Amino acid sequence: MNKQVRAIGLLSGGLDSILAIKVVQQQGIEVTGLSFVTPFFNANAAQKAADQLGVPLIIKDITAEHFKIVKNPPHGYGKTMNPCIDCHALMVKIAGGIMQGEGFDFIFTGEVLNERPMSQNRASLEIVAKTSGYKEYLIRPLSAKFLNQTKPEQEGIVDHSKFLDLQGRSRKRQIAMAREFGVKEYPNPAGGCLLTDKGFSNRLRELLSYNEDPSVRELRLLRLGRHFRLADTAKLIVGRNQQENEVLESLFESQGYMIMTDDEISGPTCLLIGDNLSEYLERCALICAAYSDVAPGIECPVNIKHASKVSKTTVITDRSHRETDRI
Length: 327
Fold this sequence. Notes:
Number of helices: 11
CATH architecture of the largest domain: 3-Layer(aba) Sandwich
Strand order of the largest sheet: 6-7-9-8-10-11
Number of domains: 2
Shape: elongated
């Protein structure tokens, strides 16, 4: 009896990674998806795709390894702080470790030759494969016709002739394939990595200029609210809507301060984080009031929570505090 061929596919949840799984499955290969989590991206789309495909999904938190390359990527950044080449190499390296440890036969991704000019050109794909340490076991089934055959292809574990010849930025063929495979749900191709967002990258650069080793909590806070740099060691984050207010409340820790208007007043939740914070409380109360519904020139009651204690203060609302020290 022939051994069941098993493969591990990197699954972002995007259309290309979904189609790559479908193409591999057509050869009767058993596929397990692999997705990753950091403060800059999550596995939500991947989990949704795995459920749609009916494949098991491994989710790995790679925050520590990933942040090292975010701070110092050997192959540089894209347009913002996205170290795509080194990020992809890290993911393939981790996939290779799982492949070896759990008896998979090869790794594959949904990368398409020249779909992304900087990170998916031929040279970049070669760098990813070589840097990962698993070049001989990494297959790109959507563009395999343009690439050198890997060990599983050469040994006949998989049929190279059944892989595809996709290339370039057009997605017409992918969309047509989705219809053929009955794939009805997939996200837009913009991607879910915050490091590709200019505003987020600016915030991250600003944070690293003051703190070379921020906590995971500080990194998560970068995606929320409006940020105000009050001092080298003090920053205020102001919620922009109810959802952000609730997330900020969940991220409150006793060594910092949470600043809010009274319950009967519509206003933001604010977090003050850092060191030696007490001297900035009045300014934070003014910023909090500036984003409340209290009219300018009117008194606004503000609650300040530290540890388990809550104190109250009152400030005069002044909208000019909305821009002072804002990042």
